[in-house]
Amino acid sequence: MRFRWICSLALVLSTRAAHADDAIHSLTLDRAVALALAHNPDNQSAAEDVAIAEGGLRQAHAFANPSVFVGAIGTNLSPLAAPLPNQVGVAWSIPIGGKRAAGFAIARADVATAQASRATARRQLAFDVQAKFVGVLLDAAQLDFARSDQADVKETQALQEIRYKDGKIAYGELLKLRIQARAADDLVRQAELTLATDRAELAQLVGNGVLADDFAVVGELTPPAVDTVPTAAELYARALARRSDYQASLAGERSAAAAVTAARRQPIPDLGASVAYNRVPGEAGAIDLVLSVDVPIFDRNRGAIDQAQATRRKAALATASLQSQLRADAQKAVSAWETAHARLALYDDELLAAAKESLDITQHAYEAGRGSLLDYLDAETSYRAVTSAYRAAVADAVIAAAQLRFVAGEDSP
After folding, report:
1. Residue among 192, 188, 170 nearest 180 (CA)
2. pTM for this prediction
3. Which domains does the chain have, with CATH numbers?
4. How far is it, in rounded angstroms, from Cα 310 to Cα 288?
């Protein structure tokens, strides 16, 4: 019993170890997007929607099955006499009035809608992965900076504690340094929480169980290069021509229009045809041919027609709403890029260099005995704030550049 228990435990541990070995430990942006497209369940669900629509198209081409009947008629019923059965036949309902063509149009439009929706889901997933990947890079950089700052503050505090005991600085200066040390500790905790949250969300986007718990993102936050920034009108025109979600909306309109046609043709009666062979003892065999149609007196499908027309109007309104949304997205994307680009240029050319120069001057003055500790701490705080804001500006610019491509529909994975 103990041996079997030990073997079972070893098997479980080896399985977990094998699973851990299969997990991804190093993650680049391109690999993150590829893994998400392969493993994200929402993306896989969109692919199944295409398979469902394609199955509907195949089914639309299928004819109704004929029915075969056998029976006993005439004098053979009582008393029973051979041959039994003495009637055999085939019946079939033949669709007429263009109902099959309308069904084909609906099914083809549904396939186009599903395919465009799948492309939209892939684009959105790729963009979300990129945004979260950039967020993790930023979080990691901010955490490293916060920890470095924490170490510097603690080192400075330890030295100033000694100087305070020797009576070289006032208690007010030491108190501010202690407060700054607590603030540095809090910034580290906040940065750790933000990083852990974004890592979990990135792992969720990529797919459950794909990434190792200790996976590392590989990449750098560098300012993006955008050669030519389109105007909002140009970006909107590109979106109408390339966006898969807009194409899905147009396909939905075509499907709704085909549904109206199908609803109007539905009252046209199908032609029922049956052929039967009858054999009565003592008489020659006979063949019966019967044609039948339903007479649309009571049900003319008016309710279904009204529903289909309302659905078509709703689909047109959805397209108009999407056009308005795309126009607004184009304006916001261009404005976001212009703001991010200007903000990044400001930090590159002015603020970052000025903050570093101010810190160096203040530190040199303090070390030479010509400045106060409080002035040095203020300069150090300003430099940390500017450096952190610069990194955030780089991340915003990367996302803004990606947003331009996303709105234009130029980022299909």
Report:
1. 188
2. 0.80
3. 25-62+95-151+196-266+301-408 (1.20.1600.10)
4. 46
Q: What is the DSSP string of 29-51?
A: HHHHHHHHHHH-HHHHHHHHHHH
Coil/strand/helix, residue 223: coil
Give me the torsion for CA of 168, 173, 177, 178, rounded to 10°.
90
Question: What is the crossing angle of helices 373-408 and 171-206, to 10°?
Answer: 20
Residue at token pair 């976001």: 336
Q: Mean pLDDT across the stretch 300-311?
A: 93
The rounded Cα 330 to chain-centroid distance in angstroms is 19
State whether residue 16 is helix, strand or coil.
helix
Contacts 24+ apart (CB under 8 A), 127-132: 127/402, 127/403, 127/406, 127/411, 128/205, 129/29, 129/32, 129/33, 129/36, 129/202, 129/205, 129/206, 130/29, 130/33, 130/399, 130/402, 131/399, 131/402, 132/198, 132/201, 132/202, 132/205
CA 194 to chain centre: 22
| CB neighbour class for 19 (10 Å; exposed up to 12, middle 13-18, buried from 19) | exposed
Q: Is 124 exposed, middle or buried (0-12, 13-18, 19+ CB in 10 A)?
A: middle
Q: Is 70 exceeded by the pLDDT of residue 311?
A: yes
Token pair belonging to 27: 């993650």
**Crossing angle between the packed helical segments 373-408 and 99-165, to the nearest 10 degrees:** 170
Q: What are the backbone dihedrals phi and psi of residue 67, each rounded to the nearest 5 degrees, phi first?
A: -115, 140
Q: How many CA atoms lie within 13 A of 168 on its CB side?
A: 9
**Lookup: tokens for 61:** 């081409």
State the pLDDT at residue 30. Answer: 93
CA atoms of 110 and 115, how far apart (whole Å): 9
The pLDDT tens digits of the residues spanning 105-135 come to 999 999 999 999 999 999 999 999 999 999 9
What tokens were used for 230? Answer: 């389109």
What is the DSSP track for 303-352?
Answer: HHHHHHHHHHHHHHHHHHHHHHHHHHHHHHHHHHHHHHHHHHHHIIIIIH
Q: Which helix (H) or strand (E) holds 293?
A: strand 286-293
